[in-house]
Amino acid sequence: xxxxxxxxxxxxxxxxxxxxxxxxxxEAVGALGTAFIYVPDRAxxxxxxxxxxxxxxxxxxxxxxxxxxxxxxxxxxxAxxxxxxHxxxxxxxRDVRLGVVDAxxxxxxxxxxxAxxxxxxxxxxxxxxxxxxxxxxxxxxxxxxxxxxxAxxxxxxHxxNSx
Length: 163
What we know:
It contains nine helices and no strands. The chain has helices at 7-17, 22-35, 42-52, 58-71, 78-88, 94-107, 114-124, 130-143, 150-162. Helix 1 packs across helix 2 (22-35), helix 2 packs parallel to helix 4 (58-71) and helix 3 (42-52) runs antiparallel to helix 4. The chain is globular and about 55 Å long. The model has no long low-confidence stretch (mean pLDDT 89).
């Protein structure tokens, strides 16, 4: 069990987010995902994760995008973090889109614009990448119970299934 995270640990995690060493940045993503609930400045930690979704290393980008969904509910400014997630659904990197698809399923109950999140997932079922499409279709199942317009969502699912 992680328990209490010291300020020194948090400072080290933040420092590793900007390290030149890929291994440090990979570890920082995992550490942020694990320690996020203990971080006093969650807005800064969120920004670290979003910045890491633009990292030069593909594995760092993918991991960071995936962690966003795990920590979404702990970030105070849901509107801002939703905008970050929404923007990342259109990222050029398929690994970031994969991570965001994985993030949207668990995060949808906390997203302020659930209708837009649903539409993002529907759009991602038409993604150029087969894995993104597959995961987006799976995320729709997780998201369905949180969508305000169930009739429209059902029509979307029916149309996707018929297409």
